[in-house]
């Protein structure tokens, strides 16, 4: 085999040492790429399988396709302009300047945080942006016009996600400078997607009445396979956010799984207590609420706090979903297919508040490298710094209010504008049919070799003209 390096000259403007500069930590770079791929697999194939299995058979293709499209569309928008709007030069206190992120010189600079190149950071932050849009889709399954979804994705990414990401995660952002604790996206991803999904569901309108009344999953095992990928993928979701291979990353990973297990078990016990049967769908909901709740606090709370957070995330969203939602006429008017309001908005809000209570100063120092500035209220009271603790809780609540208001307003405007171009909701006739009407495809072949009834028959080498 020939040596390609002997025939292709190395670019004259680079030295061999530039491929691994002294400032770059190879272990950190390798872990960051690995963590990003874990998060990407939560979407493709994780949520693709979860959504595809959790809906009626007639919506399996459409639901999975919404995930696939969003993942691809977000990536192109991300490198085109959205990354710089989220993490680039400041335009306003709440927003960065739009610019491309495809330049080699920009790629190989040190990232804004961490000892790895910007190109790694672009990839890492992309998978978080993508999964946020995919979570929004969960509220819209089973009726949104796919062409409307194609327009919604780039618009919402550009005018909603980038604002919240810059404000909370960029070192120059308003809430980052205020000291808001959002370790890995309880605000930026889960609260945003839950509120935006619920708002968009209001504007899109409901499924057919018979679908709202009975919407059984077409493949529970497929749904569980997607849920398993979502759970295990959260290792990268929370473990990658210190931007360094550290003890804090390890703590975040363990806390994530401990909280999730406690939440799942709590939800199952509540189902048994009130409905006399353990529900696997309920277990998945409890799993998700645990993952979401721990996310804003994963590396800044102790293990006992993670268990308490799991118990609360398995019970409070259960209560809002099973009791409050069923008694509220306002909530029942909105058709939130996958209950993202409860599993993401409520659980994300809960996690943000509990971070303001349980954040441990020494662990906050490991993550933020700033002493005595980040402190949960309980520790503030214990250490005689009640003012610092109350301030932290106040910032957490302030951030929740900001994210809710931004997402309600921007999502409503986007839905209105998209509705001027194409209908947001499929017609009732197409809703009766599902995937066949939307895409001309079906998820499963239930007879023969997958042929459709009344389809054109042909044999190899012979085409039968209609």
Could you explain the architecture of this structure?
By secondary structure, this protein is an all-alpha fold. Helix content is 67%, strand content 1%. It contains 20 helices and two strands. It has a two-stranded antiparallel ribbon with strand order 1-2. Helix 3 crosses helix 5 (118-137), helix 5 runs parallel beside helix 8 (186-204) and helix 10 packs parallel to helix 12 (280-294). It comes from Morus notabilis. InterPro entries: Ammonium/urea_transptr, Ammonium_transpt, Ammonium_transpt_CS, NH4_transpt_AmtB-like_dom, RhesusRHD. It is a multi-pass membrane protein.
Indicate the topology.
Layout (H helix, E strand, L loop, with lengths): L3 H4 L18 H29 L5 H28 L2 E3 L2 E2 L7 H4 L10 H20 L8 H24 L4 H5 L7 H19 L4 H5 L6 H20 L7 H29 L4 H15 L8 H25 L1 H5 L6 H19 L2 H8 L8 H6 L3 H36 L6 H6 L1 H5 L27
Antiparallel strand pairs: 1-2
Helix pairs in contact: 2-3, 2-5, 2-10, 3-5, 3-6, 5-8, 6-8, 6-18, 8-15, 8-18, 10-11, 10-12, 11-12, 11-13, 12-13, 12-15, 13-15, 15-18
Please tag this protein with its features:
67% helix, disordered N terminus, membrane, Ammonium_transpt, Ammonium transporter fold, ammonium channel activity, RhesusRHD, disordered C terminus, globular, 20 helices, mainly alpha, 466 residues, 1% strand
Number of domains: 1
* Estimated structural class: mainly alpha
CATH fold-level label = Ammonium transporter fold
Average pLDDT, all residues: 92
> What is the name of the CATH class?
Mainly Alpha
Segments where pLDDT lies below 50 for 5+ residues?
A: 1-12, 455-466
Number of helices: 20
Placed side by side, the strands forming the largest sheet appear as 1-2
Please tell me how large the radius of gyration is. 23 Å
First-to-last CA distance: 52 Å
Helix content: 55-70%
**Can you summarize the main beta sheet?**
2 strands, antiparallel
> Topology as H/E string?
HHHEEHHHHHHHHHHHHHHHHH
> What is the count of β-strands?
2
**Which outline best applies?**
globular
Within CATH, the superfamily carries the name: Ammonium transporter AmtB like domains
What percentage of the residues does DSSP assign to strands (E)? under 5%
């Amino acid at each position: 085999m020939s040596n390609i390096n002997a025939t292709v000259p190395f670019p004259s403007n680079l030295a061999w040492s530039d491929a691994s500069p002294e400032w770059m930590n190879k272990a950190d770079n390798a872990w960051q790429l690995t963590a990003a791929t874990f998060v990407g697999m939560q979407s493709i194939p994780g949520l693709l399988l979860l959504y595809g299995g959790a809906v009626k058979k007639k919506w399996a293709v459409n639901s999975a396709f919404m995930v696939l499209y969003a993942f691809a569309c977000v990536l192109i928008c991300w490198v085109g302009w959205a990354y710089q709007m989220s993490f680039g030069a400041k335009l306003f206190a709440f927003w960065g300047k739009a610019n491309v992120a495809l330049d080699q010189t920009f790629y190989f600079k040190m990232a804004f945080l961490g000892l790895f190149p910007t190109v790694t950071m672009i990839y890492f932050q992309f998978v978080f942006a993508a999964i946020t849009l995919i979570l929004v889709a969960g509220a819209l399954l089973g009726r949104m016009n796919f062409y409307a979804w194609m327009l919604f994705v780039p618009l919402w990414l550009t005018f909603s996600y980038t604002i919240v990401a810059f404000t909370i995660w960029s070192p120059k952002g308003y809430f980052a400078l205020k000291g808001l604790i959002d370790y890995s996206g309880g605000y930026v991803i889960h609260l945003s997607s839950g509120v935006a999904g619920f708002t968009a569901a209001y504007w899109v309108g409901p499924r057919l009445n018979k679908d709202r009344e009975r919407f059984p999953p077409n493949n529970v095992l497929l749904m569980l396979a997607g849920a398993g990928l979502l759970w295990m993928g959260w290792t990268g979701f929370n473990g990658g956010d210190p931007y360094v291979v550290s003890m804090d990353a390890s703590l975040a990973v363990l806390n994530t799984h401990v909280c999730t297990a406690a939440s799942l078990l709590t939800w199952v016990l509540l189902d048994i207590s009130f409905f006399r049967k353990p529900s696997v769908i309920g277990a998945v909901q409890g799993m998700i609420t645990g993952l979401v709740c721990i996310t804003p606090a994963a590396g800044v709370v102790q293990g006992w706090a993670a268990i308490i957070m799991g118990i609360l995330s398995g019970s409070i969203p259960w209560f809002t979903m099973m009791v409050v939602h069923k008694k509220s006429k306002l909530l029942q008017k909105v058709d939130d297919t996958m209950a993202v309001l409860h599993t993401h908005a409520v659980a994300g809000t809960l996690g943000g508040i509990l971070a303001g209570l349980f954040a441990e100063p020494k662990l906050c120092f490991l993550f933020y490298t700033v002493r005595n500035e980040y402190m949960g209220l309980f520790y503030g009271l214990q250490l005689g710094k009640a003012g610092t603790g109350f301030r932290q809780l106040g910032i957490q609540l302030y951030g929740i209010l900001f994210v809710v208001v931004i997402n309600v307003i921007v999502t409503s405007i986007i839905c209105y504008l998209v509705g001027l171009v194409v209908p947001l909701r499929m017609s009732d006739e197409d809703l009766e049919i599902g995937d066949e009407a939307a895409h001309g495809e079906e998820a499963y072949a239930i007879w023969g070799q997958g042929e459709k009834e009344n389809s054109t028959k042909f044999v190899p080498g012979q085409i039968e003209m209609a």
